[in-house]
Design goal:
Order of helices and strands of chain A: HEEEHEEEHHHHEHEHEEHHH
Strand content of chain A: 15-25%
Radius of gyration of chain B: 24 Å
CATH class of chain A: Alpha Beta
Number of domains of chain B: 2
CATH topology of chain A: Rossmann fold
Helix content of chain B: over 70%
Largest sheet of chain A: 6 strands, mixed
Shape of chain A: globular
Structural class of chain B: mainly alpha
CATH class of the largest domain in chain B: Mainly Alpha
Oligomer: heterodimer
Distance between the termini of chain B: 8 Å
Distance between the termini of chain A: 29 Å
Number of strands of chain A: 10
Number of helices of chain B: 12
Helix content of chain A: 40-55%
Strand order of the largest sheet of chain A: 6-7-8-3-9-10
CATH superfamily of chain A: P-loop containing nucleotide triphosphate hydrolases
Number of domains of chain A: 1
Largest sheet of chain B: 2 strands, antiparallel
Number of strands of chain B: 2
Radius of gyration of chain A: 19 Å
Largest interface: A-B, 22 and 23 residues
């Protein structure tokens, strides 16, 4: 089931990860985190990577972003090997890092201003973004005056205005409460749909994954490699209500869950507490879903 | 949230008639009362209180003070001390902030400058007074120099610490969006250090007042004739030499008020410079 990279992939995809391995530590203490991992990001599509916590997803992000180089294998973006960070591959990190001394508007304008693109056109784009994330009235507020969910939205907008060819998001909605999280999915989906750029989204939340994804990558426990690829062929624009009612969505979810469950069980037998929690949580959800159906 | 004029008015009312004002008044009244009673009576409940008995009573102090309010040389002392504090403090800010930033951002300048800085820093500004009087052409300049030293080290240390404590993620985010080194400096390091600069300035301002008064006493008020050009420190010293104990107390309280005014002004300035730290 794991993906094999062939020549066609380099033509069709924006980013290709080809048999990449990465280990930390040296000699006999070397711990392989990513082993022989291959996948690709389709141009203009949203690829979601999901896997048990602590499975090396963050390492893959650093490799993709160019913060680190793989031990073997290659990461290529539009035929060019990735050799370092670039503003064409913007990473949105887990924790909020808005500039506390800038208000909402100035935070979003940071990138354009740094590049000397403080034009009328950019300003119009900011206005549109503010409207999309529903924060037009909060343009003059400082981050400390915004709620957690609002801060994440500003952060999304601040990244999206730079219009990078590839957006990489590392569990951006982790830590938000359930209601806020669901709202964030809708805001983010809207932003993605209007951007028409390639997005790579990492999460541990199956509902989030299915709601957002065009394609789902399911990862193994450490050492990480791709176990399976599930295409999420739900129509866009998506609505949360559709997700819960759609039979196709539930089908995909069951398929993904079965695969995830197997992976989680493996790591569970490896003694990981995080993985055990993961299994529990999903087993519970599964039965709840079963009752609903 | 929009704050209306009525809100402001009720805030003011709360401030003027609130519990904290009542406590402050109570504290001052009790303090003055004990002082008055102590200085008027030779013994308290059978205990002799010579240490309090020699202090002029607050009523006498106020009488002398009222007389001084129309005395231009008293006000001249205020002006002189204020000017010295301002000159020393502003110089310390103007030199200290760039200096602190330079050793914060450049490993080389840190390595070259910081060791000497750390040797000079523990020397109390007042230890510099004799040297300053010898080195500088006028007494006025030597007083300002010593005042400057009082604030300089504190400001530099705060700028250095503040710049180093800026969250690494801000740099990562800025760089990933294509910000140049200059952008990172003026859009991240500068605003990120501003709160620490303000803390350094507040502490520095307090030190400046301490130092200026002592320097004025030691150097004899900048060599000015009489008590008019000497500043508040020399005003106190002169009153002591002249035997006017009430004036000593007036001078002391004046310094307290002057220091309070400078700190309040600085705090206001700090709030204007760092609007993002304001409470909602």
């Amino acid at each position: 089931m794991a993906q094999e990279i062939d020549k066609n992939d380099f033509e069709q995809n924006e980013v290709v990860v080809d048999r990449v391995s990465k280990a930390y530590g040296t000699g006999q203490f070397a711990k392989p985190v990513v082993t022989d991992c291959s996948f690709s990001l389709q141009r203009g599509k949203l690829t979601v990577m999901i896997g048990p916590s602590g499975c090396g997803k963050s390492t893959l992000i650093r490799l993709l972003a160019g913060f680190e180089a793989p031990d073997s294998g290659t990461v290529t973006m539009n035929h060019k090997p990735v050799s370092g960070p670039s503003k064409e591959r913007l990473v949105l990190f887990q924790e909020t890092a808005l500039f506390p001394w800038l208000n909402t508007y100035d935070n979003i304008m940071f990138g354009p201003r740094a590049r000397g693109e403080d034009t009328a056109e950019t300003k119009a784009t900011v206005e549109k973004l503010l409207e999309t994330i529903g924060l037009t009235a909060f343009r003059k507020k400082y981050p400390s005056q915004l709620s957690g969910g609002m801060q994440r939205r500003v952060e999304l907008a601040r990244a999206m205005i730079n219009d990078p060819q590839v957006m990489i998001l590392d569990e951006p909605f982790r830590g938000l409460d359930a209601m806020t999280k669901e709202l964030m999915w809708e805001y983010y989906a809207r932003l993605f749909e209007s951007s028409q750029r390639t997005h790579f989204f990492v999460t541990t939340d199956i509902d989030e994954a299915i709601f957002l994804a065009d394609r789902l990558l399911i990862m193994t426990h450490i050492p990480t490699k791709t176990t399976a690829i599930v295409d999420v062929d739900l129509p866009r624009p998506r609505k949360l209500t559709d997700l819960f009612e759609s039979e196709r969505a539930n089908e995909i979810k069951m398929k993904a869950l079965t695969l995830l469950h197997q992976e989680a069980m493996k790591s569970f037998s490896g003694g990981s507490k995080a993985a055990a929690d993961f299994v529990d949580a999903y087993a519970k959800r599964k039965t709840e879903n079963g009752k609903q159906a | 949230m929009i704050r209306t004029a009525r809100n402001h008015l009720s805030d003011l009312k709360k401030q003027l008639f609130g519990q904290s004002t009542a406590r402050a008044l109570f504290s001052i009244i009790v303090f003055v009362l004990i002082w008055e009673l102590g200085s008027k009576s030779k013994d308290w409940f059978g205990f002799v209180t010579p240490w309090l008995g020699h202090v002029p009573a607050p009523t006498d102090v106020i009488k002398v003070w009222i007389g001084l309010l129309t005395d231009s040389s008293y006000w001249q002392s205020w002006v002189m001390s204020f000017l010295r504090v301002l000159a020393g403090f502003v110089t310390a800010m103007v030199l200290g902030i760039p200096f602190g930033l330079a050793i914060a951002v450049s490993r080389i300048s840190y390595g070259i400058i910081f060791p000497s800085f750390e040797v000079l820093r523990p020397i109390p500004p007042l230890a510099w007074v004799p040297a300053a009087i010898i080195f500088w052409p006028t007494q006025e300049l030597s007083i300002i120099f010593v005042t400057f030293l009082g604030a300089f080290y504190t400001i530099v240390i705060n700028v250095l610490g503040g710049a180093r404590a800026i969250d690494l993620r801000y740099f990562q985010v800025a760089e990933s969006m294509g910000a140049s080194k200059w952008d990172v400096f003026r859009r991240i390091i500068l605003p990120g250090t501003l709160p620490s600069i303000m803390v350094g300035a507040a502490v520095g301002m307090g030190l400046t007042w301490e130092v200026v008064v002592a320097a004025e006493m030691i150097s004899g008020g900048g060599g000015a004739v009489g008590s008019s050009g000497g500043g508040l420190g020399f005003f106190i010293w002169n009153s002591y030499v002249g035997g006017s104990y009430e004036q000593i107390i007036v001078g002391m309280i004046s310094i307290g008020i002057a220091g309070f005014i400078s700190s309040a002004g600085l705090r206001k300035l700090g709030e204007l410079c760092t609007p993002w730290l304001r409470k909602r």
